Backbone:
C-alpha cells in the first residue's frame, strides 16, 4: 500500500510539476492575481511591489550560487573524492545506501543547513557511482529531504534570531513583544523539539528506504555519467613557460591559503558563528588547498559553475514574489499578513501552535526565506501569542518548523542539490511529498501534545 501511494505521488508530480523556472513564473502570476482583491490594490501597485522586490535577493543569490559552486569544486578534489568514495563503499544494498545518505544528511543539516544541503547531495551522487541497483532520483530525494529539519538545528535562523531578543530589530519585528533573549534551551534544545527531531532521525531513513521502487521501475544511472568531464582541461600540456609554472605552483597555493586559513581561525576565535559567508570561505580555501595547483582549482570552478544556472535565473522571480507578498496597501494590508491573520482568527490557546505552523508552511511556499518568513509573521503571531497566553518560544519554533516544512514541495531550496545531481524538480518532488506528510504529522503531534 505504501509503495503504491509513493508511486502515485511520483507519477502525479512527474506529470504535472513544471520545470522550476515555470513553477516560479506560475507562482508569480498566481500571487499577482490574488494580491489585488485581498489587499485592495491595483495592478500597478502590485507590479511596483514586484519590481521593488525583484533584486532583494541578489546578495543571497550569490551566497547560494557560491555554496553550490564552491562545494562542488571541493568535492572534486582528489582527497575529498577518496574520502567520499570510501564512505560510499560502506552500504552493500540500495536500501542501505538510502538509509546512509539520509542519516548523513540529517546530521549535516542539523549542524548547518548550507553545509548539509550541498554535502548530502554530493554524497548521494557518490553513492550512485558505488551502489548497484539504487534508484538515483530517490537517492537525491533522500538527500534533499533531510533539509526539512534545518530550522530546528544549530543554524535555524528564527530560534537564533529570538536568542538575540533585546536587539532593536527583534523588538520591532515582534511588535514590542520580545524585549529580552529567548535562550536556545527553550527553542532548539527544548524537550519537545528534541523529541520531534529524534522521531525524524529514527523514522525518516527507514521511510525513505521503504520507498525504493521495484527492480523493474528503478532508474539507475550509469556511473560514467557522474564522473567529472574533461572539457575544462587544456588540450596541450606544457608547464614550461613562466605563466604556466605560476599556474601550477604549489607555493602560490600555500601563500594565499595562509591568508585565508588565518582569517578563518581568527573569525572563530573572536566568537563568530556558522553562516553562509564563513561556510563559503571554508569551502573556498579547503578547495584551493586540496586541489594543490591553482590552475586545477580554476578548472574545477569552471566545471562547477555550470550547475548554478537555475539559481541565477529563478531567484529574481522569487524575490519579486516576496515583494508582492509583503508589499502593503495604504491601509497596511499585505497578502502574507492576511494569510497569517486568517489562521489567528480561528485559533485558541490550544490550537495556536499548530495553526501557526500550518500558516507558516503556506506562507513559505510563496516566501521561501527564513528571514522573509520571520519579517512577515513575527509582527502578527507574537502579539497574538501574547493575547492567547501562548509561550513565545513555542510560537517562534512553530514558525521555524513551518518555514522548513513546505520546502519539500518548493523547488527554491532544491536548486543547489538539483544542480549538483543533474536532475529536475519533478524527478524528486514526488518522494518529498511523503517526507512532507510524515514531518507534518510529527510536528503537529508534537505541538498538540505540548498544549
Residues:
Amino acid at each position: 500500500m505504501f509503495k503504491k501511494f509513493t508511486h502515485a505521488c511520483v507519477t502525479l508530480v512527474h506529470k504535472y510539476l513544471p520545470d522550476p523556472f515555470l513553477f516560479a513564473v506560475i507562482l508569480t502570476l498566481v500571487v499577482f492575481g490574488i494580491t489585488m482583491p485581498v489587499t485592495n490594490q491595483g495592478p500597478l501597485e502590485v507590479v511596483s511591489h514586484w519590481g521593488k522586490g525583484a533584486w532583494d535577493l541578489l546578495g543571497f543569490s550569490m551566497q547560494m550560487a557560491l555554496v553550490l559552486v564552491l562545494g562542488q569544486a571541493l568535492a572534486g578534489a582528489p582527497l575529498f573524492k577518496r574520502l567520499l568514495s570510501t564512505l560510499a563503499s560502506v552500504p552493500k544494498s540500495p536500501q542501505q545506501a538510502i538509509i546512509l545518505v539520509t542519516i548523513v544528511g540529517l546530521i549535516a543539516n542539523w549542524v548547518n543547513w548550507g553545509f548539509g544541503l550541498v554535502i548530502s547531495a554530493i554524497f548521494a551522487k557518490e553513492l550512485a557511482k558505488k551502489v548497484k541497483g539504487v534508484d538515483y532520483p530517490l537517492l537525491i530525494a533522500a538527500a534533499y529531504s533531510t533539509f526539512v529539519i534545518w530550522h530546528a538545528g544549530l543554524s535555524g535562523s528564527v530560534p537564533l534570531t529570538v536568542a538575540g531578543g533585546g536587539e532593536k530589530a527583534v523588538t520591532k519585528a515582534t511588535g514590542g513583544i520580545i524585549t529580552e533573549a529567548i535562550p536556545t534551551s527553550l527553542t532548539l534544545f527544548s524537550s519537545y523539539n528534541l523529541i520531534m527531531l529524534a522521531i525524524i532521525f529514527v523514522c525518516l531513513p527507514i521511510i525513505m528506504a521503504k520507498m525504493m521502487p521495484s527492480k523493474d521501475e528503478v532508474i539507475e544511472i550509469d556511473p560514467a555519467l557522474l564522473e567529472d568531464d574533461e572539457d575544462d582541461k587544456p588540450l596541450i600540456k606544457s608547464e614550461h613557460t613562466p605563466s604556466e609554472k605560476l599556474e601550477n605552483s604549489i607555493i602560490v597555493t600555500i601563500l594565499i591559503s595562509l591568508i585565508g586559513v588565518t582569517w578563518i581561525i581568527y573569525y572563530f576565535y573572536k566568537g563568530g558563528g556558522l553562516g553562509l559567508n564563513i561556510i563559503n570561505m571554508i569551502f573556498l580555501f579547503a578547495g584551493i588547498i586540496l586541489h594543490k595547483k591553482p590552475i586545477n582549482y580554476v578548472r574545477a570552478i569552471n566545471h562547477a559553475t555550470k550547475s548554478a544556472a537555475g539559481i541565477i535565473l529563478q531567484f529574481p522571480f522569487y524575490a519579486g514574489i516576496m515583494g508582492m507578498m509583503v508589499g502593503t496597501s495604504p491601509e497596511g494590508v499585505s497578502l502574507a499578513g492576511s494569510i497569517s491573520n486568517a489562521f489567528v482568527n480561528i485559533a485558541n490557546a490550544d490550537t495556536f501552535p499548530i495553526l501557526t505552523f500550518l500558516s507558516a508552511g503556506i506562507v513559505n511556499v510563496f516566501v521561501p526565506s527564513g528571514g522573509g518568513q520571520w519579517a512577515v509573521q513575527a509582527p502578527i503571531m507574537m502579539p497574538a501569542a501574547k493575547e492567547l497566553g501562548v509561550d513565545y518560544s513555542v510560537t517562534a519554533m512553530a514558525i521555524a518548523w513551518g518555514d522548513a516544512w513546505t520546502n519539500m514541495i518548493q523547488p527554491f531550496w532544491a536548486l543547489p542539490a538539483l544542480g549538483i545531481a543533474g536532475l529536475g524538480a519533478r524527478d524528486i518532488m514526488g518522494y518529498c511529498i511523503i517526507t512532507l506528510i510524515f514531518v507534518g504529522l510529527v510536528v503537529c503531534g508534537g505541538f498538540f501534545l505540548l498544549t
Summary: Residues 425-450 form the longest helix (26 residues). The mean pLDDT is 88.
